[in-house]
Prior knowledge:
alpha+beta
Amino acid sequence: MELKEGNYITIQSFMSKELKLKGNELLIYAIIYGFSQTENQYYTGSRQYLATWCNSTRYGVDKALKKLLDKGLIEKDEEYKNNIKYCKYRITQPEYQATELTGVSTKLIGGVNKVDRGYQQSCHNNIEDNIEDNNYSYSYKETLFELIENNIGRTLNSIEIELVGTWEDNDLTRYIIKQCILNQKYNIKYIDRVITSTKLKGIKTIVDFEKESETFKQQKQTKVKKTETFSEKLKRLQEEAKNEEKEKK
Length: 249
């Protein structure tokens, strides 16, 4: 889903002055707020859509959504279809009301209306927008970023986060990650090469991936079985050891 020229979101003054929001939290809250003006209406767009608005990654969006949820500023509703978890968000019912199209927020305090003038950012009119992609994630207990960090024992850097953010979050991707880590292949670029190669080969299931891996091993063993001198074998083993060391870094 692409952002369209001339579209915008509305950021009202109370969002930063009263709620003390800034950065990704402010932008994401404003977008969800735009979809929450009608009763029982939710934001159902994707995390990637939010990431595009924030010029961030899905990992950054996940962190911002979690903070907004922890602060009680938004609420999350989940439903499952065909074992896929669909998520939608809306703001909690705050003490703020907004007049349409003016960017004016009204805070009700003891029956007295306090009016704050807001402003508009030249972004996207989310109320008018027709969402084309669903905000879904498989029912996993942890994100791809958490899966990797929890298994390699360190935090991903910004370049690695951006790279992982391009991967599809599905059973096959998670299986490849786990297999690489089990084989002590901790280099994110190495894992990315495996995932990219798998996709280019048209492999979509774990069963097909295992078949391809077994075929590759057999071909490698057949190649090694060809006659080689002791010095050639020693050189090959040394090269393999060097490559393994590089991939671990």
